[in-house]
Specification:
The chain contains eleven helices and 21 strands. The strands form seven sheets. A six-stranded mixed sheet has the order 4-3-2-1-5-6, sandwiched between helices. Strands 10-11-13-21 form a four-stranded mixed sheet, with helices on one face. It has a three-stranded antiparallel sheet with strand order 16-19-20, with helices on one face. Strand 7 and strand 8 form a beta hairpin. It is an alpha+beta fold. The longest helix has 26 residues. Helix content is about 35%, strand content about 20%. It folds into two domains: about 150 residues, Creatine Amidinohydrolase, Chain A, domain 1 (3-Layer(aba) Sandwich); about 250 residues, Creatinase/methionine aminopeptidase superfamily (Creatine Amidinohydrolase, Alpha-Beta Complex), CATH 3.90.230.
Length: about 400
C-alpha cells in the first residue's frame, strides 16, 4: 500500500523516486496510474523519503492534477524555453531542465526510477543526468521494486474498485452463457433461432458490446474451443462455429478504463460433456477446492503450487514440478497477483520463488488447469481472491462453475 512507501524506501536506502509520466496512454503506465488514477494527465511523480508525493504537471491539466490529492508543482516553474535557447542540443536541454528541477525539489542521493517509457530516450536522459549530477545515484530494480511491493497489497478504495469490476465481469459472462443457452444444435454446430451458426467471432462481438456497456475494456479475451482450449493462451478462432460436447475455455480479464483488473476463467461444454472432459474437469475442480480449503494468511505462495502439482501427479498427469517446459498436463503456475496489471506480485509459483506470502491486502488468482491439445481439450477454472485485513479470504468472482451449458432453443 502507499502507506508502506517510506518504510520500503528506508529499508532499501532510497532517498527519492521518480515515476515517469506517459509517453502514450496513461492506462499503459500502471506505476504512474497508481498515483494519478485513470486520468489524462501527462506529468511526472516525484517523492522524497518522508515527504508526500509531488506531481509535476502542465497548466492545461491543472484541474485533473488537483483531483489527485498530490502536492502540485507546475512544470513551467522552470523555464524550458530559456533553457532551450541556451542549449540547442535537445538532450542537453532536457538534462538541464531535470537538473534544475531535481536540485530545487531535493531529488538527490539514491534515486529510483519507475514508469513505462520508451527505453532508449530515457536511458540517454538518465545516463547524462547522472554524469551532470554527481550527487545523484540512479537506482534501477529488476523485480520486486518498491512500487511492486507497495502495489501488491491493496487498500479499501482499491478493493472497492476490484469488487465492482468483478461484479461487472460476472454480468458479461452471464450474457454470453444466456446467448449460447438460447441456441440449438443442428448438423453438429450450435445455431441461433434463425438457423445461423453461432461463431466464436460472434461471441467475441457480444463480449465487446457487453464490456463497453459497463465501461470496461479488455485487451484480449480468450474464447478457445477444442484443441485450442488445450493451449493456455490461444485466443480462439473467430470463424469457428460453436460445437456441442467440445471444451471451451473462456478467460476474461477486463478492467475499468485505466483502472483495476478482474480475472476469471470458466470451462464450458455445450449440451453435454464427454467422459474424458468431465473427468479432467472434476480433477481441476478437485485441485481448486483443495487449494481453497488450505488457504492461510501469511502462508508462502509456493506451497499451493506444490500442493496442486502433487494432486495432479497422483492422478497421472505430468506437471511442471517434474518436467519443464511441459506441453501437456498441468503446464503453468497456480496464479498471480492482480491489480493495475493483469500479472502482478505475488506469484503463485515455484519456478521463481522470492519468498512471497499471502499477506493481508493481497489479491491473487487461483487457476489450476489441465491441457491436452492432442486429445482436443483443455480445462481451466479461475477466480480472483482477496486476503482481507483481518486474515480472511474473500472470493471476488461471483459466478457458477457449471461445466455444461444446456441448450434450450
Amino acid at each position: 500500500m502507499k502507506q508502506d512507501l517510506d518504510r520500503l524506501m528506508a529499508e532499501r536506502d532510497i532517498d527519492a523516486f521518480v515515476v515517469e509520466g506517459p509517453d502514450g496512454l496513461e492506462s499503459a503506465n500502471p506505476d504512474y496510474a497508481y498515483f494519478v488514477g485513470a486520468r489524462h494527465l501527462p506529468g511526472l511523480v516525484l517523492k522524497r523519503r518522508g515527504a508526500p508525493a509531488m506531481l509535476l504537471h502542465g497548466v492545461m491539466e491543472r484541474q485533473a492534477a488537483a483531483e489527485t490529492g498530490l502536492v502540485l508543482i507546475p512544470r513551467d516553474r522552470w523555464d524550458m524555453r530559456a533553457i532551450r535557447a541556451a542549449l540547442p542540443d535537445p538532450l542537453a536541454a532536457q538534462v538541464e531542465y531535470r537538473r534544475q528541477m531535481f536540485t530545487e525539489l531535493g531529488i538527490v542521493g539514491r534515486v529510483a526510477c519507475y514508469g513505462s517509457v520508451k527505453a532508449g530516450p530515457h536511458l540517454a536522459l538518465w545516463q547524462a543526468l547522472a554524469a551532470r549530477m554527481p550527487e545523484l545515484t540512479v537506482v534501477a530494480e529488476l523485480e520486486g521494486s518498491i512500487l511492486d511491493v507497495a502495489r501488491a497489497t491493496k487498500d479499501d478504495d482499491e478493493i472497492a474498485a476490484m469488487r465492482r469490476v468483478g461484479r461487472k465481469t460476472a454480468e458479461v459472462v452471464a450474457s454470453v452463457v444466456a446467448c449460447i443457452r438460447a441456441g440449438r444444435e443442428r448438423d453438429g454446430v450450435v445455431v441461433d433461432a434463425t438457423g445461423e451458426p453461432i461463431t466464436i467471432g460472434r461471441i467475441r462481438g457480444l463480449i465487446g458490446r457487453e464490456l463497453a456497456a459497463r465501461q470496461l475494456e479488455a485487451g484480449h479475451t480468450i474464447f478457445a474451443q477444442g484443441s485450442d482450449a488445450g493451449l493456455p493462451h490461444a485466443l480462439g478462432r473467430d470463424a469457428e462455429a460453436l460445437r456441442p460436447g467440445t471444451a471451451i475455455v473462456f478467460d476474461i480479464f477486463p478492467r475499468e478504463v485505466g483502472g483495476y483488473y478482474h480475472d476469471m476463467t470458466r470451462t464450458f461444454a455445450i449440451g453435454h460433456a464427454p467422459p474424458m472432459l468431465q473427468r479432467a474437469y472434476d480433477e481441476v475442480m478437485g485441485a481448486y477446492g483443495l487449494v481453497i480449503g488450505e488457504l492461510e494468511v501469511g502462508a508462502p505462495t509456493r506451497v499451493y503450487q506444490e500442493l496442486v502439482c502433487r494432486y495432479f501427479e497422483e492422478r497421472g498427469h505430468a506437471t511442471v514440478a517434474t518436467t519443464y517446459p511441459l506441453e501437456e498436463g498441468y503446464v503453468h503456475s497456480l496464479g498471480h497477483g492482480l491489480g493495475l496489471e493483469v500479472h502482478e506480485d505475488p506469484r503463485m509459483s515455484t519456478l521463481n520463488d522470492r519468498g512471497e506470502v499471502l499477506a493481508p491486502g493481497t489479491v491473487v488468482t487461483i487457476e489450476p488447469g489441465l491441457y491436452y491439445p492432442s486429445r482436443g481439450f483443455g480445462v481451466r477454472i479461475e477466480d480472483t481472491w482477496y486476503v482481507t485485513a483481518d486474515g480472511q479470504f474473500e472470493n471476488l468472482t461471483s459466478f457458477p462453475k457449471d461445466l455444461v451449458i444446456p441448450l434450450e432453443g
